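re: ur question from earlier - yeah i can do the single chain one, its not a big deal. heres the input i used so u can compare w yours
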Amino acid sequence: MASHRNDITYSSRWFSFGRWVGRFLPRSLARFCASGLGYFYAACNPARSRSLETRVRILGSTSHPKAGRIFASFARVLADYFILGSRPLSDAVSLVSERTGYEHLEAAHQAKKGCLLLTMHLGFFELGGAIMKEMGFPIVILTDPEPSTALTRWRTEYRKRWDAETHILGSDEFHFLEVTKLLNQGKFVAALFDRGHNVRSSRVPYPGGVLTCASSVLLLALLAKCPVIPIAVTSKKDNTYTLHACPPIWVEKKSNPQETLDYYSEKVVQSLWPILEKHPDQWYRFAPTLEEQRI
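and the output i got, formated as C-alpha cells:
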C-alpha cells in the first residue's frame, strides 16, 4: 500500500499552487471548499478510506470517525496551512485562541536546558512552529527527507518564515545525535512521534491495538538531560486552535536501551491520550504502518 507521501499531489508544485490559491480565497470559503473535497476524496478512494478507519480504531473508543470526516478535517487544516504560507506571523498566531500548559514551556525555556517537543499527526501540528516563535522559544523541527529535494526545500523555507529551523534526519538513528548540540544550546526540538522508525521503534499498547512509535528520538532527551513535553495543536468548533502542552517527562535509564525507550514511549502516549480520545477525527494516520509496509 502506497503512502500519501507518494501521491502526485505531494509535490512542491502542488504546494506552491495551494499557497497561491490561499492568497485570494477568504479563509471561510477556503475551509468550506476544502472540507467538501475531503469528503469527495474519501468517497472516491474506498480502499484507502477503509484502511484509515482501521488504523484509527486503535483508539478503542465507542465512536469511530468515518474516513470522510477525517479527510475533511485534514483538508481544512491544509487550507489554513496554505493560507498562512503567504501571510505574517500575526495571522497565524491569531488562530490560536487557547493555550494550556504554557507554564511547562516557559519553565523549560528559563532552565536553558532545551526541550524535546513530541507530537503526533494530530491537528495543525505545523502551527506549533509559529506559536513557539511568538512566545520567544527558539524551535528546530526534526523531519525525514521529503519525496523530492524540491519539496524538502519548499517546506524548509515555509518554516523559516517563522524562524523555525529544519533539521533533516538520515536513515541511521545515530545521525540525529548531533541534535543534542541544539538542545544543549537551549533550543526546543520538535518531532513527530506516531510512526515507526526503520531502525528502532517501540510498540505501545492501545485499547484497540498497538501503536508503533519512533521512540529512538527519546535518546536525545536522555543524552541532553532535557525534558520531554508532549504537545498538540487541535482545532476547535469556532475554527480556531488550542495549543496543548503536557507536563514534562524526564527520561532516565532503565535496565537496557530498548526498555528505556518502551517505557517512556508509553509515558508520552499516555500524556497525549486524552487529546486523541477527544479529537479522533483530527488524527491523520494516512501513512501505512510498518506492518502494512511489510505485506
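The chain has a mean pLDDT of 88. not sure if urs matches, ping me
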